[in-house]
Specification:
By secondary structure, the protein is of the alpha/beta class. The protein contains 22 helices and 30 strands. The strands form nine sheets. A seven-stranded mixed β-sheet has the order 3-2-15-14-16-17-18, with helices on both faces. The protein has a five-stranded parallel β-sheet with strand order 5-4-6-9-10, with helices on both faces. The chain has a four-stranded antiparallel β-sheet with strand order 21-22-24-25, with no helix packed on it. The chain is globular and about 70 Å long. Bound molecules: adenosine-5'-monophosphate-propyl ester (PRX).
């Protein structure tokens, strides 16, 4: 107001100076200008909050705010969502084209403080839905804080320092969550390895990360069976050299431990229940998590404190319409990025109750999820399409037995959701009154980038479409041939990129920044390249259609073709192999393996398949076993020796007559042989 009065006086002086004689007109003009200045200063003073209600009710304004002033938008989000020990002055120091990403870098915070200390001690943080039904356990925020502080001090007592790597090989459980947060409390990086991975896969991740400590359990029940975690860790440690101590959660029986084994419960029980959270830089690493790419070994994506927690907590709130008091269930395993961002960090930063699901969707029967929803009164449920598809095949009688009226939001993640599964989820589970949110994102993106929600209440949701980029997220499609950016507003297919950085982007691949740049930054435009193909509509909605590279997505688990081929090639009778992803009714994609045997192999096909499968189980995990094997004399390759997977993909679904351009095939007989094999099987 003061400023506008001053301006008004200046204007009057100006009119006097230029000698305008019409005083009335002058006064009128001054009044109009004053009103405009006033309304502008009001707009500038009014801060558009980024809380859930504002985001829903003023969605277009929030989107506009993010687009017109991204620095202020992200800075405000970081300050609204998190408690900073030291406020930041620098917001975005990214140079995406050089693969440099940095957010809030001079700010300091402690992630575990944000996820625990801020919330009332008595509020329920976790409900652990154990493998056996009807045996859930509740953990209050205060208890989780105590556990976290005690484990943090145990890690310190073992010599773990900031930025050291701690491998966590545990089932989805409060102990796993407390261990992750304990690492965050002391600035160590956790590296959770999905407890379904084999000893070799675990060893490879330990070696690459150079982990000092492994935290595991003796055994872990899953679907009524016991998984021998400790045995797997012992086997893995034979192939590694960096691990000094193994912290063991003796879950099933208590023994006296020796060697490098330390009893997790005994040691942590001796520690004080509280430990001051130390402030770390927003750009210090929080964790690394391995994921598969199209080539080479799995890569350790590194995420940092400030940007990651800002974005996961905000998106968790506005996508799942989630606030304190809600019971939110993400049924992913803690070993995947979904478990990190939307089971642990997002929900706990928001102070909600997060359900940890340790079992399988079909144990003891296909009603398990829905019985749990009724018993725990779950409000938001987040799962993978593969589980939805497998349950819909069992019919409606299971969900129909249970009262599902507590549900408000049903999320889907990890792979495209097909029309049938989408409608079943909406109608049979959501009873046509829940929001269905098909969320698209990746290990690399840290958080959800495209989702139907948030949006203006009542706005349209098209089945099977991930729909709208979140405010602040700027996707673009690139034409795969011309490499040009496809204009917005044109319905088209292309390679999905993101043109501007956002706070929860992975910062690098552990110890391989060149690979990070080569893999994720487009040479032509300096955009983030997702590796996914997508369709955009005229309205700006997105549907993710599949991968543009050789990554296979089995039940939402990412695998590189080369990883599976390497495992198959371990069999002494195998000379060469090629695998492709092929559509699968439940898993989304299944693996089809084309294998060349060495001369003189005398084993039968069924013998070979069993043996190769056991190599795959040993080298990767059981979910990586192929659906189909084809033993062939030659593989279809180009003259430069590149396997023509495009042809193998078609052959895997029985297409033998429309194989596209085969003119570059080095040996046409390669295809003819496979065609004969397929015809014989029909
Ligand atoms: O291909 C996309 C697919 O899963 C990939 C990311 O896998 P991951 O890093 O393991 O993270 C999975 C959980 C976020 C993506 O590149 N994907 C993920 N969500 C969707 C999807 N495909 C289609 N629709 C989705 N909603």
């Amino acid at each position: 107001m003061k400023r506008s009065k001053l301006l008004l006086a200046n204007l009057e002086a100006f009119y006097k100076f230029i000698g305008t004689s019409n005083i009335g007109n002058r006064r009128h003009q001054c009044n109009i200008i004053q009103a405009r200045l006033f309304s502008r200063s009001l707009a500038a003073q009014e801060k558009l909050s980024l809380d859930r209600d504002t985001v829903y009710n003023r969605y277009e304004e929030v989107k506009q705010f993010a687009r017109s002033d991204p620095e202020s938008f992200w800075a405000q989000m970081a300050r609204e969502k998190l408690k900073w020990r030291k406020d930041f002055t620098r917001v975005n120091e990214c140079n995406l084209s050089k693969g440099e990403v940095s957010w809030f870098s001079d700010g300091q915070l402690n992630v575990s403080e944000n996820c625990l200390d801020r919330h009332p001690r008595e509020d329920i943080a976790l409900i652990w839905e154990k493998d056996e039904p009807n045996q859930h356990e509740q953990v209050a925020y205060g208890e989780l804080l105590d556990m976290t502080c005690q484990i943090a001090q145990t890690l310190l007592s073992l010599g773990v320092k900031p930025k050291d790597r701690v491998v966590i090989y545990l089932p989805t459980s409060p102990i796993a969550v407390a261990t992750m947060l304990a690492c965050a409390r002391i600035g160590a990086m956790h590296c959770v390895v999905f407890a379904g991975f084999s000893a070799s896969a675990l060893a490879q991740r330990i070696n690459d990360s150079g982990a000092k400590v492994v935290v595991t359990a003796d055994k872990s029940p899953r679907g009524g069976k016991m998984i021998e975690l400790q045995k797997i860790v012992t086997e893995a440690l034979n192939q590694t050299a960096t691990v000094e101590k193994v912290l063991l959660w003796q879950r099933t029986e208590s023994k006296t431990l020796s060697g490098n084994l330390v009893d997790l419960m005994k040691e942590s029980d001796r520690m004080p229940k509280y430990m001051e959270p130390e402030a770390f830089s927003a750009e210090d690493p929080l964790f690394m998590l391995y994921t598969s790419g199209s080539t080479g070994k799995p890569k350790g994506l590194v995420h940092t404190n400030g940007g990651y927690l800002t974005y996961t907590s905000w998106t968790h709130e506005v996508i799942f319409n989630c606030s304190k008091g809600d019971i939110y269930a993400c049924v992913a395993d803690v070993g995947w990025i979904t478990g990190h961002s939307y089971l642990v960090y997002g929900p706990l930063a928001n102070g909600v109750t997060s359900v940890l699901f340790e079992s399988t969707p079909v144990y003891p029967d296909p009603g398990r999820y829905w019985e749990m929803v009724e018993r725990l009164k779950i409000n938001q449920f987040y799962a993978a399409p593969t589980a939805i598809r497998s349950l819909l095949k069992k019919g409606d009688s299971y969900p129909n037995k249970y009262d599902l009226k507590s549900l408000r939001v049903l999320g889907s993640v990890g792979e495209p959701i097909n029309t049938e599964a989408w409608h079943w989820y909406n109608e049979v589970i959501g009873r046509s009154r829940c929001k269905i949110v098909d969320t698209w994102w990746q290990t690399e993106t840290g958080g959800i980038l495209i989702s139907p929600q948030p949006s203006t209440p009542g706005s349209e949701v098209i089945p099977t479409m991930a729909m709208r980029p979140l405010p602040g997220i700027e996707p673009a499609l690139i034409d795969p041939v011309t490499k040009e950016v496809i204009p917005k507003g044109r319905a088209a297919d292309g390679d999905l990129c993101v043109t501007k950085p956002w706070p929860s982007m992975a910062r690098t691949i552990w110890q391989d920044h060149e690979r990070f740049k080569d893999t994720y930054i487009t040479k032509e435009h300096g955009f983030y390249l997702t590796g996914d193909e997508a369709h955009q509509t005229e309205e700006g909605y997105f549907r993710i259609t599949g991968r543009m590279d050789d990554v296979i997505n089995i039940s939402g688990h990412r695998l590189g073709t080369s990883e599976v081929e390497d495992a198959i090639n371990l069999h002494p009778q195998v000379s060469e192999s090629a695998v492709v992803g092929s559509p699968h009714a439940i898993k989304g994609e299944g693996i089809h393996a084309f294998v060349i045997l060495k001369d003189g192999c005398e084993e039968t096909e069924s013998q070979l398949i069993t043996e190769i499968n056991s190599f795959i189980k040993k080298d990767i995990a059981s979910f990586a076993q192929p659906e189909a094997f084809y033993f062939v004399p030659v593989l279809p390759k180009t003259r430069s020796g590149k396997i023509m997977r495009r042809i193998l993909k078609k052959l895997s679904v029985g297409i033998t007559d429309d194989l596209g351009d085969v003119s570059t095939l080095a040996e046409p007989s390669a295809v003819e042989n496979i065609v004969k094999l397929i015809e014989k099987r029909k």
